[in-house]
Design a protein that fits this description.
Distance between the termini: 32 Å
Shape: globular
Radius of gyration: 18 Å
Largest sheet: 5 strands, parallel
Strand content: 15-25%
Order of helices and strands: EHEHEHEHEHHEHHEHEHEH
Structural class: alpha/beta
Bound molecules: D-glutamic acid
Length: 253
């Protein structure tokens, strides 16, 4: 019998930061990664637009034999995961939200949350801060407007200019930064250059562990002993697919 796949989606290459963690602990699964670059940036869309877009992607992933869907996007998770779970009761979803809990668990005192405009303003982030923030902890909300788009286009010069504009101000103040968009770990080095003393935190490892947990819990883990296939689809161009395979190969070294 053909193995069913792990479906992953994001508004572009950001999902690679989660795919790479999945490959470390679940190398023998088959993956279908759907990069929706044509609709990037998600972080500047409305909830209604995002629900339409993500519903179409979920339909695609289900009809392409996926047994679980990983929403490798903070914006899509904070905006639509609840509604997607209500609409598609037959499939398991795992999402990603900004790793504010990780900052809390590690006792950081001055944490920047860098995320898309949508995520920054979302009720989900409000709840996370309410649930996890210590009384003596400061959380600085910073919106990375257009940043995911620049990362998808690999526009390094504009990325660095924008990062300086929005982050330099926190250089002496912050001890940690939560990367609340899956695109941002791909520019961790650029961020480190601007905030050399900040610990960089993101939730990718936790998401991968949750996928493993769900596969085991539902008895749908692939027990094959050989490496699985990775299919990448990009809604904008095949060149972007080639670039993603190259980045992935680089990350796996
Ligand atoms: N990578 C996404 C996230 O985690 C979305 C970026 C965007 O398209 O705005 O939020």
């Amino acid at each position: 019998m053909k193995n069913k796949k792990i479906g992953i989606f994001d508004s572009g290459i950001g999902g690679l930061s989660i795919l790479i963690e999945l490959l470390k602990i679940l190398p023998n699964e088959d993956y279908l990664f759907y990069e929706d670059s044509i609709n990037n940036p998600y972080g500047e869309k409305s909830e209604e637009e995002l629900f339409d877009i993500t519903s179409n992607i979920v339909d695609y992933l289900i009809s392409n034999d996926c047994k679980i869907i990983v929403i490798a996007c903070n914006t899509a998770t904070t905006s639509c995961m609840k509604k997607l779970r209500e609409k598609y009761k037959e499939i398991i979803f795992v999402g990603t939200v900004p790793a504010i809990k990780v900052a809390y668990d590690n006792n950081y005192k001055d944490t920047i949350l860098l995320a898309t405009p949508y995520t920054i303003k979302s009720t989900r982030v409000e709840e996370l801060i309410h649930d996890y923030k210590n009384n003596d902890q400061n959380i600085y909300l910073v919106s990375g407007k257009n940043l995911a788009n620049l990362i998808d286009n690999n526009d390094q010069e504009s990325i660095n200019t924008l990062l300086k504009e929005i982050l330099l101000h926190y250089k002496e103040k912050a001890d940690s930064i939560v990367l609340g968009c899956t695109h941002y770990p791909l520019i961790a080095d650029n961020i480190k250059n601007i905030l050399p003393n900040c610990e960089i935190l993101d939730g990718s490892v936790g998401v991968a562990k949750e996928v493993l947990h769900q596969l085991e819990l539902n008895n749908i883990k692939n027990n094959s002993i050989t490496r699985g296939n990775i299919i990448i689809k990009n809604t904008k161009s095949d060149e972007l697919v080639t670039r993603s395979y190259e980045i992935l190969e680089d990350m796996l070294k």
